[in-house]
Amino acid sequence: MLAKRIIPCLDVDNGRVVKGIRFVSLVDAGDPVEQGKRYDAEGADELTFLDITASSDKRDIVADLVRRVADEVFIPFTVGGGLRTVEDIRTILRAGADKITLNTAALETPELISACAETFGSQCVVVAIDARRRNAGDPADGWDVYTHGGRRNVGLDALEWATRAQQIGAGEILLTSMDRDGTRNGYDIELTRAVSSAVRIPVIASGGAGKLEHFYEALTDGGASAVLAASLFHFGEFSIAEVKNYLRGRGVEVR
Amino acid sequence: MGQVAIIDYGVGNLRSVEKAFAATGCEAVVSGDEKELREAERLVLPGVGAFGACMKALSERGFDRLVRERVGEGTPLLGVCVGMQLLFDESDEFGATPGLGLLRGKVRRFSDELVVPHVGWNRIDQIRENPLFDGVANGSFLYFVHSYYCEPAEKSVVAGETEYGVRYASIVAQENICGVQFHPEKSQDVGLRLLQNFARLNSRC
Questions:
Q1: pLDDT in tens, chain A (255 residues)
Q2: Any catalytic annotation for residue A130?
Q3: Any CB–CB contact under 8 A between A192 and chain B?
Q4: Do A97 and B13 touch (CB under 8 A)?
Q5: C-alpha distances in angstroms, B36 versus A20, A138, B31, B72?
Q6: What does the alpha-carbon distance between residue A207 and residue A176 come to, in Å, rounded to a whole number?
Q7: How far does CA B57 lie from the centroid of its chain?
Q8: Per the CB < 8 Å rule, is A3 touching B116?
Q9: Which of B26, B81, B150, B205 does the annotation list as catalytic?
Q10: Is B81 a catalytic residue?
């Protein structure tokens, strides 16, 4: 049976991890290779690097990061953050990344999704959707798609966008609840369930993990194929192994 | 231990495969050079994306013939992911597209009832003994990403199976021809072990 995936997310700036495992001080806490290896050893199923480099030679910096990680980490990894063209993406994939995430660029130019799917295959195209409830108290009112860290409402329904992204070539959806992100109050289960029921591609739930049962809820009630968390692992609250042991104990297939 | 050549025919990222072999202590090169590919002791046929596009890119370089000839000479060949699918007669992807025809059978799409692609870690049940499994526990998890699966005409080529809506052939091996549907280069120690086992094969899977 296909195992549910646990995916830690690392923020990277200028080739260095700025939000990763806080207590990894043995070798070099800012080194993406060291952090990648640590998560790999702990049992992470994949890694996601969110690149926030603002420099003009961003592409070279990110490609170098990807190359270094690919040389030593033998689990799949995804790179996202500011990728805008097929050429940007080609550089990242050729350097050794397995998948890329598209967010704002895909909203502005949906053809980018299809161009990437045709050129590199849908399996490497992850469309990231940041969604916020129209009515915080009632999920029945639906969710809008946001950009700019949840500040700008695109005026697009999250379910419609997920369905469209799938149609034009997305291989997975990385779904972040902007209501829950950073709150530790749990994933938005209604959102996760609504999107995973609307599409036939894997949905990665993100935003809000704070307790072990939150992972369980997203993977069972929410119908997610994978769960992503950043700060929970970053601050060392739980290790990947603890999350997996818990899930295994509750009958969820994990590796 | 002989040299492994990873066939570069313009599709996908081959760096990870090369680095994975290197991590196991095996010498591997990525090559699109006919002479090198003719001299290598073992060949790896990677593949990513669409079956038809892969087959086309392979044929344009004359590597379809090269692979068939080298296999005929007894050179061990490992097809990875779509590279495994290319070993078969044909695929349903975008209408029937012919493959290399080294193994009898077809490539089919997973049912629309399932979440497709099949992405993530899944188990391999070893259904017969094979040197590729040396040091690999039965039921080990490996990393998969694919929407189509191989349906061999002869059960005897199936070495390992995986369950995803159907039980399908995730490892095939017949004489010097091997194929794996998962990505050994992305499957941690277990995947590296399989690559190492391939690099150590005498000439038969």
A1: 899 999 999 999 999 888 766 555 544 668 899 989 989 999 999 999 999 888 888 889 999 999 999 988 999 999 999 899 999 999 999 888 999 999 999 999 999 999 999 888 899 999 999 999 999 999 999 999 999 888 899 999 999 999 999 999 999 999 999 999 989 999 999 999 999 999 999 999 999 999 999 999 999 999 999 999 988 888 888 999 999 999 999 999 999
A2: yes
A3: no
A4: yes
A5: 42, 64, 7, 17
A6: 5
A7: 17
A8: no
A9: B81
A10: yes
